[in-house]
Amino acid sequence: MKRVTMQDIADEIGVSIGTVDRAIHNRPGISPATREKILKCIEEKGYRSSFFGGSTITSRTSIYKIGVIIQNIPSFFWGAVKKGIMVAARDFSHYGIEIVLKELDVRVMRESSKLVEKMDELVKENVNAIIVVPSNNEAVKNKINELVDKGIVIVTLNDDVNGTKRLFYVGPHIGQDGRLAGELMGLYLKGKGNVLIINNDIESWEYSERIRGFSDILKEKYPEVTILAQYTYNYRNLVSGNDVFLLKILEEAENINGIYDLNSITFHQVGHLIKKNEKLKNTVLIGHEIWGEVRELMKEGYIKACISQDPFSQGYFAVRQLCRYVFEGKTPEYERMYTKLEIIMKENLEGEDSIAKLSLDY
Predict the structure, then answer these.
(1) Is this model's pTM higher than 0.90 or not?
(2) Which residues are within 8 A (CB) of 192 and not within 5 positions of it... i.e. 6 or more apart?
(3) Structural domains in the chain?
(4) Do residues 196 and 233 lie in contact, with contact meaning Cβ atoms separated by under 8 Å?
(5) pLDDT by residue (tens digit) across 267-290?
(6) 81-84: long-range pairs with CB below 8 Å, 24+
């Protein structure tokens, strides 16, 4: 059975979607006769019945619950994602949506068992849809497909997984951010030098594709830039315990000209170690996501470039596109919707500060 949308109601009556919206929410700018005609059509067609257990738009007794699973650290990044989600929830509150937020500790966020457990919790809380940052493993993929088969809409955020029935993905272009980092590294090193990659051990498709993109662009355009080694640390030690590991790597490194750090949490830690180590003072450090300590290290010249993926927009558009699909019948034009990648360097740091504040104050 075809879902009834606002456009269907508008076409039936011969008015605009805006007029239907005014009738639904009892707003001015519409005649009583037209309002009555629209509400009668809504009642007859059962608008929203496929989303709210048979209730119509006029009852306003049902809530559409959207479960969200994100991690809590680093707060500078995930706080912006959460801000985007809450702003979108406010902007689309007239649809009767409710956000059910589950924030996981950074050290367990990407463990498949914990993620599946949280998804099951949301199901018990009767959510209609789930926005989730997935880990790239079979248990999570199977759970996504299972829930979709049960009628729960799944949206992936910030990271994606292949081979599932999720509706769409919102986040950075998978792999493009790595290629962009590789391009910057090749340019800074003027096409020649030795590079280290610092990564973590989480099961992330995004991170694996970042490395692939970084390596590919160096092979294609900068063959004399050599990746000497890739170091991987335990993700459970992100909050504490990585300093010793990173210090050992950098103290033992010889003839290193550049470092690519994939994770935003350790990015500033590597910057501080470069600052303290005289032999590394000319090392080109490139990584991801801008925040207070990264800004200071960039101003001082210890971080050369940072790639930001617009976390506020990731949260906002995940909710917005989901609402447009559910309530307006608009199937996403693309199954992967990418947020803007921005290169931040010392020269444009001041402007970035004001732009970031504007988005967070929205």
Answers:
(1) no
(2) 222, 224, 225
(3) 1-61 (1.10.260.40), 64-171+311-339 (3.40.50.2300), 176-308 (3.40.50.2300)
(4) no
(5) 888 999 899 888 888 999 999 999
(6) 81/157, 81/158, 81/311, 81/312, 81/314, 81/315, 82/315, 83/312, 83/315, 83/360, 83/362, 84/311, 84/312, 84/313, 84/314, 84/315, 84/316, 84/317, 84/318, 84/319
